[in-house]
Amino acid sequence: MKRKVLALLLAGAMACSVFAGCGGEKDSGNDSQKVQSDDAQKDETKDEEGQEPSGEETGDIVELNFYYSNSPVADQDRIMDKANEIIEKEIGVHLNLIPVDGAQYAEKMNLMINTGDDWDLCFTAHWMDFYNHTAKGAYADLTDLLPTLAPETYSRIPEGLWEGVKVDGKIVAVVNYQQWGAAQRKGFRVRSDIAEEVGFDWKQLEDKPTLEALEILGDFIGKALEAHPDMIGWETAQGGNLFKSDCLYWDMDAVGDTEVPGWIRLDDPKTVINQFETDEFMEFCKIMRDWYEKGYVRKDGATVTDTTPDRTAAKFVAELCYGWPDSIDFPGNADVAKMSMCTPENAPAVAVSTTRTIIPAGAGANAAVAVNANSKNIEKAVELIELLNTNDELYMLITQGEEGVDHVYDEEGNYSLVDGMYNFNYNEWQIGQSYSPTFTRALYNRNEAGEMAKESQGIVFEADKTADVSPLSGFVFNSEPVKTQIANCSAVIDEMLPSLCSGSIDPEENIPQFLERLESAGVNDIIAEKQAQIEAWMN
Amino acid sequence: MKKRNKAMRRKVPLKRQLPFYIMMAPGLLLIALLFYCPLPGILIAFKDFNPNDGILGSPWMDPWFKNFEFFFKSDTARIVTFNTIFYNILEMLLVTLGAVTLAILLNEVKGKVSSTIYKGAILLPTFLSWIVIQYILFALLSVDRGIINNSFGMDIAWYSDAGYWRFIMPLAYMWKNIGYYSVLYMAAIAGINTDYYEAAQLDGATKWQQIKKITLPLIKPTIIVLSLLWVGKLFNGGLGDWNAFFSLPNNSGALYRTTDVIDTYVYRSLRTLGDYGMSTAAGLYQSLMGLVLVFGANTVIKKVDPDSALF
Amino acid sequence: MKTGKFKISYAVIHILFILLALACIIPLLLVLGISLTDEKTLLAEGYHLIPRQFSTFAYKYVFAGATSVIRAYGVTIFVTAVGTVLHLLFMSMLAYGLTREEVTARNKLALFVYLPVLFNGGMIPTYMMMTKYLHLKNTLTVLILIYLASVTNVLIMKNFFRSIPNSLLESARIDGSGEIRTFFKIVLPLSKPSLASIGLFVAIAYWNDWTTCSLYIETPKLQTLQYLLQSLMNNIRYLQQNASASRSMEFAIAELPNEGARMATCILAVGPIILLYPFLQKYFESGLTIGAVKE
Question: What residues of C are in contact with residue A115 (Cβ under 8 Å)?
């Protein structure tokens, strides 16, 4: 028996060595040929069905594969044929813009990078493996290429943002500067009609620390729910909470990935702390517990993945607000005058910002385009980035389709997308800079509201030039030495954080347990490693 | 038996064997290609893998077990290992028991229309993917909008109490798979010669005696083969049918104590790291456990009933 | 007395199966019900089997992007049909060879076939093989190839072939039939029930597969139905989790179809199998009764 197993393993190993033995040969030997001939019939069908042209050069035209995340896009060929006419004429490149499903994107890019697959450009972000991939050297160094081959792309962006995409002083990705700006100032949004109804002075929230603001909001929500018992006070969901990615609400910033323990206070950037050990975390969870018991939040908040039905039905009394200027600085700012996913008619709102204005460390890599370090056409890829960022006609074509066909303007100048036609699903920020000084790279309503949106966004861009930059900008955490600990902490956090932050479990009892488990998972090693790397970086 | 084989082996000329080898060739090649060719990937578990050097060229981990550390150092390694084995064996027993019972009972339903309807109905869930079942389950168990809470006027937070899921998981698994397995067992029962039953009836055997003395012994090999394969397949690191465990609990942290299996735990731990070395290591650990279970089971079977042993 | 007892036990069996059948059918009807319920009612009143407020909006929505759904049907049906036939052909030939005593190396080969049940090399080598060496990205071939072999099915078939009486094959040989001819003319027809039941489940595996599509298919032309479904179901969570990355995300989330539309897609994905099932089952049944092997 034993001998048989051994012999078979050997036979098996021999079979695979044909394929993996040297790893360099194009042909995997008889196996593949056999299968291919078995499948010859299907290959014919495949050709009929049409095949993505493989990255070979045809004449002078260079093929570039650009991966980004998007849901399936209807009618993509029509638009891309038109777009490629422009691109081929301008820089002699044929662009294959390849959408990968959002939920699969991180895994797919990770796989492609780890297997050395054929890609030229890709969307990347710090919340999506940017740091892991840069640590592996997957992205090309663009420091010298950008100023020469993409001058406008390079100069348009505030200097501070480039720090966010640098590793060891080298730029490894191009910032997709968005029409929303980069400087952040966060706050809260409340239903203005209900505030008026119950006599709530929302302006008092201004500049309040988050805990205090939440206390004030708690009173308001209580009154609001008395008057409207079918509403929900506050959104709780499994995916997001104030201690997952919103460091700014706590006047903190994350060292590396926001989900890994180890943040700093903006006032004391030299000391790495475990954000879950802070008083803020305990107090926040207590407030949430209180709200949970009073019925201000959904009972299943820890497990809800999709809150869109509640949002579109205008169920929430108050919510987080990432957009600014707020309703005090810029009265009538239409961007913030309605609750998320609602209309000003069914859920009028006012926003008030509470945090400082800052460009966080992750802002640069919040949305960026990287070039494959192994690509044969790195320079062409940078040229393509410049073209996408400067040719507004091309950019608008790809991101919005054709006017009159895919989107239309009504008599009042409001634009809308046409059902069932080409639809980029609002992913314009993944393939290039949606900002330009002339505001021609996003669809604005052709009326007063549209002009107002431009004006309010203009304020953010002014701020971008002068805003404080997080003291951590330019620091990249190398997670290699504490991978084991990060893996174990991630699992613990995933398990307990949503329940704590949605109030479904008692914080007094469970936070000590949570911290204990984090400790045995090695959280202290992570903090110490972050601390050491920060100190080395600062000196 | 062995002697006869040996005698035959010498006698059969290659020319007579050739047609069989021709027939087997595509299948063997497919198995070599799809299952054996990727095997060197197991080495990644011991390597500091980086794409530029490839699987063989990447440096070895130092110490060699470093990729395994994260799993064994975690406080949940024991729980998820237990869950993996527990659900694996429990579901195998439940589904086998249920499916054999259903197959025998269905065989007793003589009405053609009714038996067709029953078979069709119990097979339906097999066609659904787990993601659809996740939605169905959510529609049933949602706290505020769920059918169960609404119709019985209850307020049970199903997705927050891990205790319920020790029952919900196996139930859901049975619901989806029992139809599939009963069809397989029915095919086995249909293959039994009716003469046996006729003879038994002449001897005055009751239904129960017929089942015990004829049906069960004759489908025993099928039962053993399917069960052993089940154990092996589920432990096939990363490729086992753990989709149920990914989908059904709706990522609810409160349930992990009873719903986490090795695959889901590893997936969650490495989500932010995307480290293939560590995930391959965990997969290998899972495979080794499967290997031990299958060989163990096979040894037992060999002692009890040598003819049914897998190898 | 005896007949009375008999009847009671039959009644019990029928009641048991009626309950089981209901337990299996009702959840699917629930999905149908949700897909036909008005979205607002769904929110206000929760899930119900029978729509409180009937609406076909969800289906209209899904079919607004009709070209992609119809094309996905085409791809899925083609892959399922070709894949199932080839799978049955290759695996049954292999299983048959493994049962023949003439094949002297059959025990060794059998172990070679069984061992992979326990190990797999993981995603990286498989992906490399498919893309770098076989160049199968964006082909129908990869969607078919990936499920062409199954150890489980070889074993099930092997068990079945073993029960075919040797005398039958001997007499064919004496009549001068070649081994391959014997296999196709005598063995395969006898194995209809086994092949039908295995074939059904191979078909389901192909039909429900979406991971292969998500890894290897990059052109919308070759996307499968389950991939579209999966994409609808999964993207919401992903978008909500990362909503702070760009304010455009909020618009993107609003673009996603609502619950009703997702349910409608579920129905469209399982619908064909359910409609086809009565016909399949007929064939299935006849295979079971006619083809069953008597030893």
Answer: 124, 127-128, 131-132
Check pLDDT > 50 for residue A51. Answer: no
Residue of B nearest to C164 (CA): B191
Per-residue pLDDT averaged across B103-116, rounded?
A: 84
Q: What is the pLDDT of residues A305-360, one digit of tens each?
A: 778 888 888 999 999 988 788 888 888 777 788 898 888 888 999 999 999 999 88
Condensed to tens digits (0 to 9), the pLDDT of residues A62-78 reads: 999 999 998 878 788 89
CB contact under 8 A, C68 and A74: yes
Query: What's the confidence (pLDDT) of residue B132?
Result: 82
Contact (CB<8Å) B273/A486: yes
Enumerate the β-bridge partners of residue A124: A368
Q: Name the closest residue on chain A to residue C232, using Cα atoms.
A: A71
Q: Inter-chain contact B160–A31, Cβ cutoff 8 Å? A: no
- Among A233, A274, A470, CA closest to A363: A470
Q: Does the structure show a pLDDT above 80 at A389? A: yes
Tell me if chain C has a CB within 8 Å of the CB of A2: no
Kindly report, as residue ranges, where domains of CATH 3.40.190.10 are found in chain A. Answer: 53-180+361-462, 187-360+473-538
Please state, in angstroms and rounded to a whole number, the distance separating the CA atoms of residues A384 and B51: 26
Share of chain A above pLDDT 70, in %: 89
- What is the per-residue pLDDT for C5? 55
Task: Return d(Cα C23, Cα C18) in angstroms, integer.
Answer: 9
Q: Which fold has domain A53-180+361-462?
A: D-Maltodextrin-Binding Protein; domain 2 (3.40.190)
* Beta bridge partners of residue A320, listed in sequence order: A188
Residue to substitute from C77, C89, C247, interface A, most A β-carbons within 10 A: C247
Average pLDDT, chain B: 82
Instruction: Name the architecture of domain A187-360+473-538.
Output: 3-Layer(aba) Sandwich (3.40)
Interface test with C, best of B104, B106, B109, B131 (most C CBs within 10 A): B131
Nearest-angstrom CA–CA distance, A476 and A185: 23
pLDDT in tens, B16-54: 889 999 999 999 999 999 989 988 888 888 988 888 788
- Beta-carbon count within 10 A of A77 CB: 14
pLDDT mean over B269-293: 82
Closest in A115, A308, A426 to C248, CB measured: A426
**Between chains, do C42 and A117 touch, taking CB under 8 Å as contact?**
no
Nearest Cα of chain C lies from the Cα of B263 at a distance, in angstroms, of 13
Look at domain C60-291 and name its CATH class: mainly alpha
Q: DSSP readout, A368-408? A: EEEEBTT-TTHHHHHHHHHHHHH-HHHHHHHHH--BTTTEE
Name the β-bridge partners of A94: A63
Question: Which residue reads 């019939």 in tokens?
Answer: A41
Q: What pLDDT is stored for residue A234 in this prediction? A: 94
For the record, the structure tokens of A353 come out as 């910002």
Cα nearest neighbour of C178 on chain B: B19
| Other beta carbons less than 10 A from residue B22's beta carbon | 13
Mapped onto helix, strand or coil, the DSSP state of residue C121 is coil
Nearest CA in chain C to B4: C101
Q: Which segments of chain C have a pLDDT < 70?
A: 1-6, 64-67, 280-295
DSSP reduced 3-state for B161: coil
**Helix pair angle (B162-190, B130-141), 10° resolution:** 130
Instruction: Measure in Å the smallest separation between the Cα of B179 and chain A Cα atoms.
Output: 31
Tell me the CATH number of domain B67-308, given options 3.30.70.330, 2.115.10.20, 1.20.1530.20, 1.10.3720.10: 1.10.3720.10
Structure-token pair, residue C95:
């299983």
